[in-house]
Design a protein that fits this description.
The complex is a heterodimer of chains A (313) and B (187). Chain A has 313 residues and is an alpha/beta fold. Chain A is built from twelve helices and nine strands. In chain A, the strands form two sheets. Chain A has a five-stranded parallel β-sheet with strand order 7-6-5-8-9. Chain A has a four-stranded parallel β-sheet with strand order 2-1-3-4, sandwiched between helices. The longest helix of chain A is centred in the C-terminal third of the chain and has 21 residues. Chain A is globular, with a radius of gyration of 19 Å. Chain B has 187 residues and is of the alpha/beta class. Helix content of chain B is 28%, strand content 28%. Chain B is built from four helices and eight strands. In chain B, helix 2 links the parallel strand 2 and strand 3. In chain B, helix 1 crosses helix 2. The two termini of chain B are 23 Å apart. The chains are: A alpha/beta (313), B alpha/beta (187). The interface between A and B is medium-sized, with 30 and 27 residues.
Chain lengths: 313, 187
């Protein structure tokens, strides 16, 4: 099984073999985090540019650490205080960065398709670190690695993804990945936050938290973005947290004792997750963050360290 | 990936199972002799067959000396000097669950050829800590070194031509213990 792609843009375009290759590579790289000297020379002399047009701490830091542990040079470019503020277009900025010959550009942008656009325009590898409400493939990959390490396998697992499905690129990337690996996915949330025709992605839909979390192996809670309330999609935060917030009591009454609780972060404590659940024994939220570095190392290594379609001696 | 690997046919048998076992027994004795016993020794095998050979050497030393020596697994993919010209890097992970600090590490591999793999392995080990010394045990030394690297323990010196290939087959992976020289089929 070889890696032949120039870019990592979506989970939708990957096949099951490619997803497993990415997860396996990341799993083997986790050991580096336990070393005294956390650096291997694999990407020495390669340059990775983080091109972030949306605020992000976790993802940008995670890519930065991943690149540095592999000995790549990592440069951060954030839209504020840059030429964007002076009116330069997205593609022009990207072309200017490309003229400095990076090997990989990691891009986050509020518009769906931004990473695809760059992949077409630039000769270097592009990693999509989140494009609008479209996809966030490295988040899905780290979620999959976390699930496999805790459950031992993928096949036949049932996952409930709960919250604002419509605006979640995390949900979309996970749905594509999980379906390809033979998992069952239920999406749950108030009807205003579930997109119409979502069943066409092969998922079940539930409008009651208590039903959605029954008998599932994994519960993935999504962050409620406060601005949704201003748009009238939910009546109040208090009502949302009462019906859709996960508490120890709801878990004890409806979920399996070995369920995993996941959250892509940042957590709104007391809204989608009670603090007792976020910090509780079911929660693997910080493990997800640790695995994020391994996944991003794997992605950078396969993109910048492979000679795609090349001559294996 | 795209270029098909050339097909090889067996040219000659170099070691049978008894000879392979004798070679390992001798190396185990040499390791104990050179180091004055088994104190502070540790094995690190190179994936995949080096690990199996390291386990067998550790078992032999346990028989001779009664010492249970630790055996670690080293994947040198991240340290290769030809990473970017080899297609997809396959990372299978390093697993050395003991400290190598102040230990004499015996690095074990099946075939020594150009020496580039061992160069990478030396860097990989030193990144994990500062061993007292590193020694190299090899089942087959086939020559053609491209770097100033020499083994401390050798199962068999085997003159080969560059176009030939040496296949070490071990029970645990291949169902038999045997070493053969292979040559390209159309030649």
């Amino acid at each position: 099984m070889g890696w032949t792609r120039k870019d990592l843009l979506t989970m939708r375009e990957l096949d099951a073999g490619e997803i497993v290759l990415l997860v396996d590579t990341a799993a083997s790289l986790q050991e580096i985090a336990t070393r005294e000297i956390k650096k291997v020379p694999a990407l020495r002399g390669k340059t990775v540019v983080n091109l972030f047009y949306e605020p992000s701490t976790r993802t940008r830091t995670s890519f930065e650490i991943a690149g540095k542990w592999l000995s790549a040079d990592v440069v951060n470019f954030s839209a504020s205080g840059s030429s964007t503020a002076k009116g330069e277009s997205f593609v022009d900025t990207a072309k200017n960065i490309a003229a400095m010959s990076p090997d990989v550009v990691v891009v986050r942008h509020s518009s769906a398709g931004a990473a695809q656009l760059l992949a077409r325009e630039l000769p270097c590898s592009i990693v999509n670190a989140g494009d609008g409400a479209h996809e966030h493939p490295t988040q899905a990959l780290l979620d999959l690695l976390t699930i496999r390490e805790h459950k031992g396998h993928f096949d036949g697992l049932h996952v409930a993804i709960v919250g604002d499905i419509t605006n979640s690129r995390v949900a979309r990337s996970n749905i594509h990945g999980m379906r390809k690996l033979g998992m069952t996915v239920t999406v749950a949330g108030p009807p205003t936050l579930i997109p119409p025709f979502i069943q066409e992605l092969g998922v079940k839909v539930s409008h009651r938290l208590e039903d959605a979390i029954r008998d599932v192996d994994v519960i993935m809670m999504l962050r409620l973005q406060h601005e949704r309330m201003q748009n009238g999609l939910i009546p109040s935060l208090r009502e949302y947290s009462r019906y859709w917030g996960l508490t120890l009591d709801k878990l004890a009454r409806h979920a399996r004792p070995d369920v995993l609780i996941m959250h892509p972060g940042p957590v709104n404590r007391g809204i989608e997750l009670s603090p007792e659940v976020a910090d509780g024994p079911y929660s693997v939220i910080l493990d997800q963050v640790a695995k994020g570095v391994a996944v991003r190392m794997g992605v950078l290594l396969l993109l910048a360290g492979s000679k795609g379609g090349g001559d294996t001696p | 990936m795209s270029t098909p690997a050339p097909k090889f046919r067996e040219k000659a048998q170099v070691l049978d199972d008894a000879a392979l076992d004798r070679a390992l027994t001798r190396i185990a004795h040499e390791i104990l002799e050179k180091n004055g016993g088994a104190a502070e020794l540790a094995f690190v095998g190179l994936r995949t067959r080096g690990v199996t050979l390291a386990q067998r050497l550790a078992a032999k030393i346990a028989q001779i000396d009664g010492a249970a020596l630790p055996v670690g697994t080293l994947d040198i993919t991240l340290y290769r000097d030809d990473l970017s010209i080899r297609g997809t890097p396959v990372i299978r992970g390093t697993d050395i669950p003991f400290s190598i600090k102040a230990k004499t590490v015996v690095l074990v591999d099946d075939v020594l050829f150009t020496g580039r793999t061992i160069r990478a392995a030396l860097d990989a080990i030193i990144d994990l800590g500062r061993p007292k010394a590193i020694q190299l045990a090899i089942l087959i030394d086939r020559g053609h070194r491209e770097l100033p690297i020499r083994p401390d323990y050798v199962g068999k010196n085997l003159p080969t031509s560059r176009r030939e290939s040496v296949a070490v087959r071990l029970r645990e992976h291949d169902g038999e213990d045997r070493v053969v020289i292979e040559e390209p089929e159309e030649a």
